[in-house]
Amino acid sequence: MEYLEAYARRFDILRHVRFGEKVVALEFVGAGEEKMREWELWGGSGDAFDGDGGVWHVTAQRDDGALETHVMDFVVLCLGRFSGLPDIPTFPEKKCPAAFAGDAIHSMDYANMGGAAAADLVKGKRVVVVGFLKSAIDVATECAVVNGNYIQVPKC
């Protein structure tokens, strides 16, 4: 959290950032029901969602439980290590983490351990990090710091 706060201060965006809030609802307002079903609206072109002037209603819950809705022009979903939504893969029978003699955990569980406990878990062990997105890079880097070296292989 200190890093995020320092980053926001460094780039003078702290006044635009809310810490300690959880997004509980996200709704696009501005396109009719028919338009929402059109593929072009969801086409993945990299353009901002709906150039026709719609807005996003983002409802956030504060630490005290109060809800507040913010109106935004643009939303970026960064659902990685801190998302609270683990992407647990399915495994073939007898080739799953239960058949593995070592520990197998999701990056979110690793992050929730806290720095000291996570470092103790990986210290002196050979660690394989499967994945190549933000969470994987974060965990691989932390393992390298604790153990001194690592090999990074992108998943196919």
UniProtKB/TrEMBL annotation:
GO molecular function, one term: flavin adenine dinucleotide binding
Cofactor requirements of the protein: FAD
Signal peptide (from-to): none
Top-level lineage group: Eukaryota
Enzyme class: oxidoreductase
Keyword Flavoprotein set for record: yes
Family: Belongs to the FMO family.
Protein known as: Flavin-containing monooxygenase
Gene from which this protein is expressed: FMO1
